[in-house]
């Protein structure tokens, strides 16, 4: 049996940042092991891919409140590693009357956070006339309005993940991939049992963090002795070609707060292609069947949306990729201790909004596992008890 002060299950962005935050704790000088189900790198979870939007613009105050520290942590990682990970890129949020509530809440959260001294937050409200003038490449109706956050950006996702893991290893952390966890035995020293390289293997730790993404439900329910309200979704990611003689695509990332919650990222991944997606095209799937062949989903709603609002794009996707989401009933992550066992903490159910918050999730789990430390985060919005 191998012994560690901390073990983290799952080397996606949440688990990798958690392991990194734990190994950075100079006060404890702890030994930390990061376990991964698949050989690294891989594309079977939720953290692979080339880009993710990072922003302050959220309808929920507790999300917006996390983002100044998240931005700061990502920029510090850039400085420490010498890697470019965050590309500044404005974010356009729009809504028609079906999404005014979400848009208004987002603007209110930005204004409130800016008033607290968030000088790094920069944004502007946009009327329909403003949208038509500043983003003529898109076609919005007169009942649309929006805001643009100039302080948003794009994270280079695969590079971010590799960099966090490299920094973790540089500080003395251990990564063991190809380790399939089969059971967790709580106790004074927590036992993590599994299969590694075809053999039974057990790791023993004082404290455990579970960040197993789509596999969270399978690992957590035996510990909780109850059902946990999570769904795993297979989400298609669409890339659309820019027409040769068309008006082009908006020079910003994009979120529609109206029906369907459409979102997009400008031409950064594939030359001449725009990422534009909707969560409405997702279907429920077992994460162990993640790589099975499946029929491409019916994306007629998304095609109609492209035709209506982005005349500079071809109306048939050129590339369709796949990602896994683990979704909670209220689309807010669950970050908590196993009830009655402060030695085990977990984070799951990020519902497509977790990548950018990875540095803060790592600090939250560190806080849960070390409650004697200063409490920097309000954990109530993420508590399992809300269900």
Tell me what you see in this structure.
This protein has 387 residues and is an alpha+beta fold. The chain is built from eight helices and 20 strands. It has helices at 13-23, 61-81, 100-115, 128-134, 157-170, 216-224, 300-309, 358-369; strands at residues 2-9, 32-35, 51-54, 86-88, 91-95, 123-126, 145-149, 153-156, 174-176, 179-185, 190-196, 199-210, 231-241, 253-256, 262-265, 273-278, 283-284, 319-327, 334-338, 341-348. The strands form three sheets. Strands 5, 6, 7, 13, 14, 15, 16, 17 and 18 form a nine-stranded mixed beta sheet that branches. Strands 1, 2, 9, 10, 11, 12, 19 and 20 form an eight-stranded mixed beta sheet that branches. A three-stranded antiparallel beta sheet has the order 3-8-4. The chain is globular and about 65 Å long.
Any key phrases for this structure?
387 residues; 9-stranded mixed β-sheet; alpha+beta; single chain; 26% helix; 8-stranded mixed β-sheet
Question: Quick gist of this model?
Answer:
The protein is an alpha+beta fold.
Structural class: alpha+beta
Low-confidence sequence ranges: none
Average residue pLDDT: 93
Beta-strand residue percentage: 25-35%
Q: Please tell me what the overall shape is.
A: globular
